[in-house]
Amino acid sequence: MSDDYLPGLENVIASETNISYLDVEKEEIVVRGYDLIELAQNVTYLDIVGLLLDGALPNPDERDSIEEKLREEYGLPQNVNTILQLLPEQADFMDVLRTGISAIASYDVDLEDRSREANTRKAIRLLAKVPEIVANGYRAQTKQPFIDPNKELSYTANFLYMITGRVPTKMEEAIFDQSLIVYSEHEMPNSTFAARVIASTQSDLYGALTGAVASLKGTLHGGANEAVMAMLLEAGSEANLEALMLNKLSKKERIMGFGHRVYMKKADPRALLMKEALAELALDKNQLELYNICVLGEEVMKREKNLHPNLDYYAAPVYYLLGIPIELFTPVFLAARTIGISAHVIEQHDNNRLFRPRVHYKGPRDLHPPQQSG
Ligand code: ACO
Prior knowledge:
The chain contains 16 helices and three strands. By secondary structure, it is mainly alpha-helical. A hairpin with a 2-residue loop joins strand 2 and strand 3. The relative contact order is 0.14. Bound molecules: acetyl coenzyme *A.
């Protein structure tokens, strides 16, 4: 048994994988051999779905077939919609999403089949239904009527439409699609690791994804995108943001949207792409002030802490300008990551070894309970 203890499993290799790898030196996120950023600039989210599920980029016919399969799986069981409506008003939207994913599991005829074929069918069902749980969960909580999926729209446009009630422009659709790609897969973050740990007991894909939702909710992980937007709105101007950040730093508080366990002092390439998307969107929507505030925040953190923005820092204002309610930023992240997590669960089931680490025990020894008298 190795005696090495690395808190937070920092730099520990936890799996062998063919899915993705962060090559920090080359500043490249390798996904099945491709650079994720190059993919985001050239293909669509549904291509990434094919790439992650089948190992190769789909041709146009194969992509259409993926979209058709997704459309066939649109729609939530009425009882699941009722469950979403019965949740209390103050429910957190990641908890709503967790409950919804947990609830649809019982409707899946393939639930207990761990074969690659069955797991792939389940992944497609999840990809079809998770966006609707996100949208319906929000609409139930805010007492708005559900919006049925529109099969005339692309997968991506339909996702935005079900949330906002408005058919997005081509530019909004393209930017949202790009955001789904950069959120789709990222090696072994806490949520993917949680899903693989769960899957390694031979538990099912739905259970693994439910665990990943709980992991992603935390502000040190996916929850950061919502916290970023709250900070940007609280500041409202460049001068205020600088003061707010300096004040937080003087109190040793973390600034959400900066830093990363793996990139550390290097830039997150996904953030740079979303920064470009924000510039385009802000110009189109006459919201350049928001872009300028973000850039100033980036400069302050570079100067004060030599920290770079991570994806969440620029994805947050992009989602804000797309009209996505702030409470849904992290659920949308999870919806996009559903494909990456599914690919990892499939890989885990295909070549499984139960995760069961050991500990450095630091507690007392040789204690004895009081002896029973008589
Ligand atoms: N704000 C201020 N200081 C920071 C930040 C930050 N966001 N991130 C790291 N630091 C500082 C730490 O205080 C520490 O400084 P010190 O050495 O002077 O004590 C140093 O940088 C190293 O930090 P660690 O906590 O050791 O880094 P770790 O790898 O554990 O943290 C993490 C990574 C959790 C992402 C961290 O950077 C953080 O809390 N960021 C804010 C939350 C966030 O944006 N999460 C999203 C991650 S990306 C994603 O999920 C898509």
